[in-house]
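Section 3.1: Structural characterization of target chains.
Under the original work plan, the team committed to producing a structural model for every single-chain target entering the pipeline before any wet-lab resources were allocated. The record below documents one such target. The sequence was received from the expression subgroup and is listed exactly as submitted; it comprises 634 residues.
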Amino acid sequence: MWSLPDLGPLTEAGIVENMVHGPANDLFISRDSRWVLVGSPQGKQVYDLATGAKAGAHIASPRGGGFSPDGRLFLVPSRDWGAVQLLHTATGKPATGPLVHPGEIGSIDFCDGGSVLLTTCNDGFARLWDTATGQLIAEPTLQQGRGFGAFVSPDGSQLVISTTDGTLFRLRSSRSGHRRVELPRNAAGAMPSLFLPEPPARLLWLQRDRARVIDVASGKEIEGGFAFPEPVNTLDFGQRGIGIRPDLRFMVVRTVETKNWQAWELGNAGITRIVPLEGAPDGIGWIRFSPAGDLVAIIANDDPKRIRFWSLHSGQPVGPPCVSRANVPTQNWIPAAFSPDGRLFAAGTINGVVSIWDVATGKEVRQLDAVRDTLVRFVEYSPDGTRLVTAHETGEVRLWDAATGKPASAVLSHGEGIVRVVFSHDARLLLTASYDGTARVWSGRDGTPVSEPLTHGSLRHAQFSADGSRVATASSAGVTAHLWDVATSQPLAEPMVHPVPLFTAIFSPDGRFLRTETVARPPIPTKFWLWSIPPPLPAGERTPPWLLDLATICAGQAVNDEGRFVDASDAVAKVDEVRRTLAALPDDAPYVEWGRWVLNDSPDRPIAPGFTITPAQADKLAATLATDAVAPEP
């Protein structure tokens, strides 16, 4: 390496030789001449120019890369050019999660001193990213065909898009793009976060020794939180079922210090009564609450054939144990459920048997002729109590008449194991999800297909909205959550991208938010994420004309009478008309909140429609929760 203009050597020949292992096909030098990024067919390596020492690990990446203007960061594209990874130059560790694109990336450029990254993609959009967070700082707008150009001002506040016909579009950036709220866990033992059952959306945020209540829209802690009388074992929550009754009137916990099972009765002032469960298992176990009455079932990990019940009010055992003919699976999920009236309890086993017991007597009243010699993954009653659904690891699902035990449907098949079965709240629909990458909606009465398969990679979870009109799915392979319309089987929003695989995707009771949970993948801990989702149109309402105009402006395209996309770049001239229309509409008109947010270019606008929390407040909330260490059980 040589200096200009005197061509004096900057490094010794031996040092340079040590930097290159095989043919080099890429070379990038930081502006301060401190670092060099060398690429070869095997990947890339950063070196210190003064010493030749390696900085960080070798990175598998194709050609392409570069340093931020200050040299703190460098970037490399993925092998398929569908993502960009930002890394710290000195250590080689990721600075953010991958910046995922829906197609192949065309160009990459830093601006604003390295705080903003501009990328273009063959889907026709230019994107601006915050290099500190990996978040978009503006929504992609004005979709173009191939061959377009994009240029950003030095401060990142304006974007110019050039088209193939010579037209230039200038756009202002709010520097605060649509984003989600991140709620990190800073520990190995992750505790749950649950939506409170009634609107507006509020989150019960559990920690090892207390519970907080967080208003979802503002991110602020509000009244309703309470301290625990003693710390609880996080494993009982994270791996052994959620020990909180859905109506939030009771918690069942196994404490850390005394290792006793207790029922905590909850009221407006927090925990109002503590009831020890007499004769409960010595070790950890799975918890199921009765929808009626005050019963809880516990299946101990060390005795998976024996199911016992306790009164939440008295703490005394109720009836004799129910003894299964084979072990009930207790690894990842327990296939067991109360009937809605609380009189019966059903459980599946490792050999395919599904038994139903009378809770009061402990006697087996029925055995379902399910799929023999295959592990039962799920057993659930419909909310009206007329149906029971069973699902097996081989992909077979069947509905049963709960009164007679006879089949109510043919076998509903998936290609691989089942990861989720759930009824809609009104019991009309049944949702199944499988490792085969599909979620399916069936009639909750007879199993007739209601929709086309909802295809979404390797699924881990699926859930109905409260009204049953939408479905959320979570994928572990695609690290995305999708929102679907049940009636049309079509997606309703862009994929919600996460940096690591997902566990769950849950609707808030008001249907305005989605809560997702990701798997811990060092250095990224377990996290919960809150997303704003578009609400359904009220019954009888049609899509507002202004919304179609705004969609045309943002896309730069329209649909002609033949159902094909055609260029509509000139629609941008109507943007002021759309602004005036939105200003004149009442605040509760359909989608008005969303339209106003899109056209709001203030840097202090909320992070997304439906939220009032700003980007700075969201970052502060995430930092606060990340410091709340949750230690595992001693």
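The chain has six helices and 49 strands.
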